[in-house]
Amino acid sequence: MRAQFVLSEIGVGLRRNLTMTFAVIVSVALSLALFGGSLLMSDQVNTMKGYWYDKVNVSIFLCNKSDAESDPNCAKGAVTTEQKAQIKSDLSKMPAVEKVEYESADQAYKHYKEQFGDSPLASSLTPDQMQESYRIKLDDPEKYQVIATAFDGRAGVQSVQDQKGILDNLFGLLNGMNWAARAVMAMMLVVALMLIVNTVRVSAFSRHRETGIMRLVGASGFYIQAPFIAEAAVAGLIGGGVACGFLVVARYFIIDHGLALSEKLNLINFIGWDAVLTKLPLILATSLLMPALAAFFALRKYLKV
């Protein structure tokens, strides 16, 4: 097969259906940009999970005098010195517990003032209204229920709280957004495939006389189909290149510069450039193979002469 003939036919086909080719490029670019974005979102959520789940604590809040008057869990009164010592002793014996830190009411009040000093409520609080607590670091964040079962409802314990539950709600929201992006991506891929098939149909119909003559003089089916498949592949590859550009530009301006989220949100461990660069070959390969396969199957029907 002469490469010059195939290349010339590709150029002719792209020029004849310029509007539809442009539509294919745009739809492929948008769908694959969403595809790459959803993959990067998954990586970001997993990175955040690994970072934050390693830092979460289980907190055992102890009853104070105010709780004894208003909270049913503290109906037996404020926590005693003996109860605190027993709680700490029991925690130290549990295999799931990696580290235990005690926070006094004065320390809790100080931390509250540091974080919420501008709140109107802060001026009305006093240290004796704050709760003493034990902050427990687990060797596995999934073992929260072990602590809850052992201490929830015990005398002197007001509540057992798991910070992982708060993070689970956040990550659930992020995962929901990610699945929504994947759903939009799937619809865009369907639109892109339909455009590719229609473009191939129009191109095949506009050159049916030429392909008929080629068939009559003994040209093979692959020789006839190759220019059409290559046209779709080239258009898809251009769209894939645009999608890769979207991802690179988005990573650069959203995280590193422009919005500079990496500087403004220091508490979030953002994915690095390696995560982005590893997705680009997959996007380019998909942009090349998807249109080529769609064109191949469409041509089996529309190039019969």
Describe the structure.
- It is elongated, with a radius of gyration of 31 Å.
- It has 305 residues and is an alpha+beta fold.
- Helix 9 runs antiparallel to helix 11 (273-302).
- The chain contains eleven helices and four strands.
- Strands 2-3-1-4 form a four-stranded antiparallel beta sheet.
- Subunit organisation of the chains: single chain
Low-confidence stretches: none
Structural class: alpha+beta
Distance between the termini: 21 Å
- Topology as a string of helices (H) and strands (E): HHEHHEHEHEHHHHH
Arrangement of strands in the largest sheet: 2-3-1-4
Count of DSSP E strands?
Answer: 4
What is the molecular shape? elongated
SS strand fraction: 5-15%
Gyration radius, to the nearest Å? 31 Å
Count of discrete alpha- or pi-helical segments spanning 4 or more residues: 11
The biggest sheet amounts to: 4 strands, antiparallel
Mean pLDDT: 80
- How much helical structure, as a percent, in the residues? 55-70%
